[in-house]
Amino acid sequence: MPRSFSARLLVSVAVPATSLAVSALTSRPASACGGLFCDVVDGTPQPVDQTGENILFVVDRAAETVEAHIQIEYTGDPDEFAWIIPVTAVPEFSIGSEKLFDSLLTSTAPRYGWNFNLDCPDGQDGVCCICGGDGNVVEQSGWADEGGDDDDGVEVIKRDFVGAYEIVTLQSGDAQELWDWLSAHGYYENNLARPVIDEYVAEGFYFAAARLRHGAGVEEIQPLVVTYSGTEPCVPLRLTKIAATDDMGVRVFALARARVAPSNYRHVELNDVRIDWFGGAGNYADIVTAAVDAPGADGHAFITEYAGSSDIVVRAGLVGDAWDPESFRALASPAPVGGPTVIDVLAAQGLVDCSGDACVYDHPQVLSLLRTYVPAPASIAEDAFYKCLRCHESDIDANAWSAEAFAQAMEERIVAPGEHARELLEKWPYLTRMFTIISRHEMTVDPEFLENASLPEVDNVHTAEFFLGCGGTRKTELPSQRTVLSGPGGWPDFPEAMPYALRVEQIAPAGAPQLVQDFAPAIDAVLRAWNSEFSYDDGKAGCALGRGSLFGAAPLMLVFAVAWRGRRRRRV
């Protein structure tokens, strides 16, 4: 009988679906959306690519509100960071948790793995492979803005200060007035965006313009939370296309009472025969791109990467029990005589560790707070300064320190977002993770989403069974119940006739998905033709693995050995 080894390949798929400095999100009846313009350098517009977005929607049907968390990362000049969000109602803003996004991304990442089974009775044990991938996502985006308070006929509804952001909510009944205001305040009027902006003005939208506060650094940028009326969130892509890259990843998370799915976009299931099971699903992005472009989906579709209990999300690290902003209000200075320094208090709360060669910060906002309220002088390296504040007491900028401001900033930027993230995961039992890859020419329709309690759960872990038979023959049994026969080497390079999507569906507010396209017959036909070129010997006829057969299996064993060594190196 087959012998199954405990070693297995399990790879987390990391597709660069990055967050953006300008996002697009809406709901019905209230909406919000955004578009990335260009930086203006010496009067010349400079293109800024928008490479993707990660958005979390919290859908509260009882309160008829949608809470949108938008992950933002920007690496340019802080004075050139700005963001415009058209909204149909005046929204509320707050700061979100970067750690929540980190946990969402890593906890629910699609993972493709396989168990190794030796089918030949006289085969050699110990041939196995364990490989891994990382879940890192590189993100960059940005655009330009600077300005003042002159309204030039545009009504300023309100001004909010949340975290490092200053957000002005505007209204104008005339598109030209809005463009004039944007121009006067340093926004470049991108001609590609103007037709879309004109539409929003004609539809009576408000506009929220966000920038970093004066003096704030890009390290202070955090996810922004926008709360507005509605029950069916939407990610408008019409403005996004003005600076989007081709094949841009859009990943949408949703916390709700049931599974969330696209309503006006199609839903696609991948053909797992196309996944490179031997190569760590390294072609995952290519498969998704081709699948959402399949007939019936036509570039307007999402796949579901996970749907199920929100308990899958790791809570550890979202907020610390020892985090206490109040303890900083008693510090008359960053290094008071006879008392603990601000670094000592942060260390006691588990937020910084300067015991090694370099300081390690447990929260991405700790260093930005220190740079604001306890800045290191230019002549001293930051690590050396913070490792021993008392050694550099004479170099401390007393004017920068404010115990009250430090405590308030810690509460707003570190504690409150972490507590809210934990509350959301405790309150909302169901989490959905959806993904698409879309190019700018396809961004003609804003994807909307709905809840449907009839939809099944979707696991993010996909495990195949690999069998090595006599003579080096191989077969792989996939989660879709399909069997692939293959020869030595990597995963089969199937002919173009092999579909990338298993099926294309339309999701309604209730009931099962409606089938739009079923590619299963085509998949099975191509797979039968492929498998007919190979044979598999499970040894039941008495075959034993001899010397000649070992050479037949050698290429696969080499792949296993290389992958095993690679995994061991990554663990160091």
Quick synopsis:
This protein is of the alpha+beta class and 572 residues long. It is built from ten helices and 26 strands. Helix content is 21%, strand content 28%.
Protein model, in words:
The chain is built from 10 helices and 26 strands. Helix content is 21%, strand content 28%. The chain has 572 residues and is of the alpha+beta class. The strands form 6 sheets. Strands 2, 5, 6, 8, 13, 14, 16, 17, 20, 25 and 26 form an 11-stranded mixed β-sheet that branches. A 5-stranded mixed β-sheet has the order 1-9-22-23-24. A 4-stranded antiparallel β-sheet has the order 7-12-11-10, with helices on one face. A hairpin with a 5-residue loop joins strand 23 and strand 24 (483-486). It has helices at residues 98-107, 175-184, 194-202, 284-292, 342-348, 366-373, 382-387, 403-427, 520-531, 547-571; strands at residues 3-12, 26-29, 39-41, 44-46, 50-60, 65-70, 82-87, 92-95, 111-118, 155-162, 165-171, 206-212, 224-234, 244-256, 260-262, 266-270, 301-309, 352-353, 360-361, 430-438, 449-451, 461-468, 474-477, 483-486, 501-506, 514-518. It is globular, with a radius of gyration of 27 Å.
- Report the biggest beta sheet as strand number plus sense, adding barrel if it closes: 11 strands, mixed
Indicate the structural class. Answer: alpha+beta
Fraction of residues in helix: 10-25%
Q: Uncertain runs with pLDDT below 50, 5 residues or more?
A: 4-12, 14-51, 123-150, 544-572
